[in-house]
Amino acid sequence: MPSAQFFPRGLAVRGGADFTTDLNMSAGGVDVAISVASSGTDLVSYGVHYFSGTTATYLLDAPEVGRSVHFVGAGATGTTHTVVCDTTGVLYMSSSGSAAARQFAGNGGFGLEIVGSSAAVWTVIALRGNVVFSSST
Mean of the pLDDT values across residues 29-36? Predict the structure, then answer.
């Protein structure tokens, strides 16, 4: 029988003046980076980004192939969090590949998972709640 694997716990990473990143202890033994973003923040292209508070706009780094990123909105209805691709030419695609967009806006409570399918395309894997994609920037 294989021996049990243990992971170090209690590690916290602080990500600068505009947002805080902590490591979330998950049941599977894998730590997931969670950021609580502030308006204008440049979001990294991995982990979980949690949005709450007032309406704001964020910039998302370019995708890395195979790496996923999750967005969770916990704001009140009427509170919109817009995420724009930080790199020109990068697009969000629907899972069917039929629609492309430069930004998305989540209103109130929402959830979105995307994965980098190329260096220039984020593909939508899962979507819950009120999320609207747009080609304008």
Answer: 63
Contact status, residue 62 vs residue 45, Cβ threshold 8 Å: yes
- The phi and psi torsions of 55 (rounded to 5 degrees) equal -55, 135
The reported pLDDT for the residue numbered 68 is: 92
The rounded distance, in Å, linking the Cα atoms of 15 and 19 is 6
pLDDT at 30: 53
- pTM for the predicted model, two decimal places: 0.72
pLDDT of residue 127: 92
Only one residue has tokens 């080609």, namely: 135
Are 47 and 32 a contacting pair, CB within 8 Å?
yes
How far apart, in whole angstroms, are the C-alpha atoms of residue 21 and residue 47?
Answer: 10
Contact call for residues 39 and 51 (beta carbons, < 8 A): no
What does the alpha-carbon distance between residue 43 and residue 24 come to, in Å, rounded to a whole number? 17
Per-residue CA distances from 25 to 34, 49, 82, 89 (Å):
10, 15, 28, 35
